[in-house]
Fold this sequence. Notes:
This protein is an alpha+beta fold. It has 3 domains: 2-65 and 161-369, Bira Bifunctional Protein, Domain 2 (BirA Bifunctional Protein, domain 2, 2-Layer Sandwich), CATH 3.30.930.10; 80-140, Herpes Virus-1 (2-Layer Sandwich), CATH 3.30.40.230; 388-477, Rossmann fold. Strand 17 and strand 18 form a beta hairpin. The two termini are 31 Å apart.
Amino acid sequence: MHKQILDVSKRRGIMYPSFEIYGGVGGFYDYGPIGSRIKKNIEDLVRRYYIIEEGCFEVECPTLSPEAVWVASGHVSSFSDLMTECLKCGEPYRADHLIEEHTGKSCEASDMSAMDELVKEYKIKCPKCGGGLDRVYSYNLMFQTFIGPGKNKEVAYLRPETAQTTYLGFRRLWEIARKKLPFGVIQIGRSFRNEISPRQGMIRLREFNQAEIQFFVEPDGKYSPRFDTVSAIKAKVIDKEGRESSLTLKEAVEKGIVKLQMIAYFLGRSLQLFKEMGINPEALRLRQHKDEERAFYSTDTWDIEYMSSVFGKIELVGVSDRTDYDLSAHMKLSKQDMTVNYEGRKFIPHVVEVAYGIDRPFYCVIESCYREEGDRVFFSFPEDIAPYKAGVFPLVGKDGLPEKAQQVFDLLKKEGLYVFYDEGGSIGKRYARADEVGVPICVTIDYETLEDDTVTLRDRDTKKQDRVKIDGLCKAIVR
Ligand SMILES: [Zn+2]
């Protein structure tokens, strides 16, 4: 299935590898004309959830930031993977992945010398050329560059996450929130990680998109007043000991598996969001980070994973308690006060973070919505995610039908709808082309239209056809 999806995606402008004419570079993908529309729709759905419904502010910060930011956050010292290189051909490998591939077991070693020992013990050679491997060493995943010219240029990094840049503006955001807690801030934008050898297509990108939301709360305020709106949602749950169960979110909180109600709430909201995007809910599960995998300051961290038929598990969102760790770290290095006086208490606010990727959910939407019915291939995107609301076709290219169809097309454009016009080839071919990019409705203008101002609406999923008046067309399209 993967190959078919990729073929359609490349051919129809959903997504394709970047820099193709120069041979391509691993970890970079272009969103084509269709994919860009879908991605925007995914981002807008996230905005609807978090800005309209949860009342968050949105900020946009630079992707490039001075070194101090990443020293404070800990990324300069520890945002790294352990790697090794072939001494003969130079091929780089992530040490843990290499050991796992060689032994078929998960790699328990976590430090440099332990991994080095394993490479020696198993006599692991370069899978590409059989050459010997270099010592295992630590490799920082940030892209480094400089701001400004000459001797006074400043070391800078492309951000590896959006969260830190959101924290930097905390003093201003606190004022803008009229000094009340809790409040949330979303940032949607690009981040960068110089991955060692990304081979998983859209799943591991070196330049990628995120939507990260930081909720600033009182230290003992990690609750949600709307928890009951999601508490009955049932999900597959894997706790930090690896135990699997099927629970409602209410049960998960009551049993103490999800420690904070606020985390459970946003896991529930995320399940709703992914379902609305068109991701198959059956393929999703909640997974708690193991003690050794969780950041030392966090009391609890959860991911929602999608089980892909192609890539295995894909992490779509992380919901974590980040405590006051980040604001404290920036306060220490910047010497700027991050404490607040709130309801008679003085403290540094805590943060509960909801961190979405955009590219990974995008891929999961594509995989979940892909359908084959005999020769017919289509994407059953939800209407809010589909690249266009409708296609407008004259039945034939003569007898005044194209002119009439153009009028209908103009009418829909005037309503601000994303629609497209197509008069090339047979009507069947045009339906097939619209199906291949998941357009939910096709509007066909035929001879009857000239007589009574009605058009044919054809539904993508059911192929059912209906006749509606041009007057009521907008309403029929935006259902
Ligand atoms: Zn080699």
